[in-house]
Design brief:
Layout: H1 12-32, H2 40-60, H3 68-96
Length: 97
């Protein structure tokens, strides 16, 4: 079997813009520690973390342009993370009760 030709890598400017976006999100994360937002702080920080994770996955890990096998393994990693989070939250809820 022959492999399909690999997609060309994105230009350097995409990596630079992604890096700058990650630095901006890092600054937002650090700044959110000093802003009293109450319970909303958790939601804001989780949204920032999700944005950082998506930038890294799509730009640096090439999930967007990757082969279907790369997408399958990325999805498997997400499913494993969901399973671990579910089991941890279940354990936490049982211990509280």
């Amino acid at each position: 079997m022959s492999r399909p030709p690999a997609a060309p890598p994105p230009p350097l400017r995409h990596y630079v813009w992604t890096w700058l976006a990650l630095l901006l999100l890092l600054a937002l994360t650090a700044a959110s520690a000093w802003v009293p937002m109450g319970a909303f702080n958790l939601a804001v920080n989780l949204a920032i973390a999700l944005g950082k994770a998506l930038l890294v996955a799509f730009m640096y890990m090439h999930v967007r342009r990757g082969t279907p096998m790369i997408r399958v393994f990325a999805l498997a990693g997400l499913m494993w993370l969901a399973l671990l989070a579910t089991l941890s939250l279940t354990d936490f809820a049982v211990r509280l009760g």
